[in-house]
User: What shape does this take?
Amino acid sequence: MKIIKPIKEHKITVEKAPVSISAFLSEGLTEKTLKNISISEYDLVLLPGFIQWDTTNLEKKFLINIRKGPEFASDLPVILRNFDKIKLSNNIPANKLFESSGEKEYETIVKKQIELARNHLEHHSFYINEQKSDIIIGRNLPPPIIAEIVNCTEKSDKSIIKKAKHYIKSGADIIDIGCVSNKPNPDKVKQIIKNLKKNFDVLISIDSMDTEEILAAVDEKIDLILSLDLGNYKEFLNIPKNIPIVILPTNVKEGYFPKDPESRIENLFKLTEELQKNGFKKLIADPLLETPIAPGICNSLETYFLYKKKVCTKKYQNMELPLFFGISNVVELMDIDSVGINGLLASIAIELDIGVLFTVEHSIKLMGGVEELKESVKLNYISKYKKSPPINQGIQFFRAKGKVSQKMPKINENDAIIVDQLDPEYIPDEIGYFKIYVNHYAEKIYVLHLSNDHKLLNTLIGTNAEALSKKIIELKLTKNFQHINYLGRELSKAEFSLFSSKSYIQDV
Assistant: This one.
């Protein structure tokens, strides 16, 4: 009752069912409960989302809408306040529908904003490659995500395809060929572009400051170039003017890297003016997002804010470009779980109306980062459109934590069995032992059953810990209760690692 007390829009009555766990509420028990209630004055009967049956038959019997509510009671306020957004279901929990409604709302908003952008294509809004994709970079649009394959020119074709496939599945809009500084390989660049085009219908960018590599990419009709600066732009004045180019406020050749925001912005405006004079219309400005603490993120964020303020003035309005936000400079160099950092950076990006986001999944701690960023963009984009905080919008992305909790019963510890020590004794299972592995790219858990003399006996592949555990018991691969307990624990850890993109190492 406490949870729904703040809800004033509806008259609500709570009826207690004769079960302690909502999933155990059967159709028969529900029918019996409803027969003892005068439900004619109500418009809706809302049942727990965890019930395991379809409510259609009861609707027909009682001639009233009987639908599934959320799986967790803590979600009731959100559902009750958003009846206008979702059509409750007879078989799908309301919270799942709410998540789906968030996705649909996002798609509707984006579609509307793209139509507006198409009628106002200028230096601040443009197609990356209209012949190949409908993605537009620009004002009031969700920023597309560039996902870099780091040191791409040193990787095998198989490794590149595997990484690109994972990025695309995770929501990346552009696959970036990350080149190796001071080790140019233009022939490899050409080969990579051909290979990516052969296997995927996706936009491709190149991240290089080397002239030969960039020109090689241009020969293969690259979709986006990262990056030109004050030191190398003159070498590319004759390339096709329809290729979007990211520009930097630096002169890498001379080791010039301005620190103060004013100098960075002045350099970006100078380079913008030079390139626009030479016919380039698709430019993206990178004020350079830097690592927290050292050299410091606040100074670089100040540059972004200042750029946005200046392009609103009459003097610089014709130089307004979409902004590039290299969030990997932040996420990669922090020993903190990436999901929260990606969420916060996405909110900053949406507030600043950033044009394009750049990220990587180079280390294991960043596995799943593209998906985290994609979902975070959706959440924050809806929120900006509705002028509300990024909460309760029908999209959420929790990994380690969440919004729900379990109500604790009163527990009498005096009568409890206290277990405060672990018995470290290990008795080998005479049938054999198990090795468990998680493959994040294949999205599979692999369980190898080996004999005690290390010969492979069985291989099981799945994604669900309970299903794998039950199959092991069904096949009688072990009868040892301690071993079964251990397997359940480890398979549960493996499933969570798969879900959260966390690395998994078996506790042996």
User: Anything to note?
Assistant: The chain has a mean pLDDT of 92. Residues 423-500 form one domain.
